[in-house]
What does this fold into?
Amino acid sequence: MSRRKSTQTETCPMARSVDVVGDRWSLLIVRDAFDGMRRFGDFQRSLGMARNILAERLRRLVEADILETRPASDGTAYQEYVLTAKGESLFPVVVALRQWGERYLFSHSEPHSLLIDKSTGQPVPYMVPQAGDGDVLAPDDAIVRKIK
It folds into this structure.
């Protein structure tokens, strides 16, 4: 039986990223945090997940500095989970994954949600990797180079 590499010894940025936020629940928690959710009970109601699993995922996201805990903004004894700057920098990742799902996982007439630009009221344009000159990069236009 082979053992998975630990995050500390993994040299692939993709593998390290997936270790931190790659499971279903963690990504959905981050999605809900972008939608303004902050409290344990709100995450639980939204996601319908067991309390112990939610508590573990929130703990991991706090340890990874994706979320931080703060006293509740309404002065109650509760705590809130708030995206850190590191967590907020996941926004393009969440948008790209959402747009891929919108494009490929729903039939044309099937109801689903869309990400809308508040200032224009229009759907957020489809994200694509771009070269320094603004040209769209295709998979064959990029290469992974290992650095030391």
Remarks:
- The chain has a mean pLDDT of 92.
- The beta strands are 67-71, 79-83.
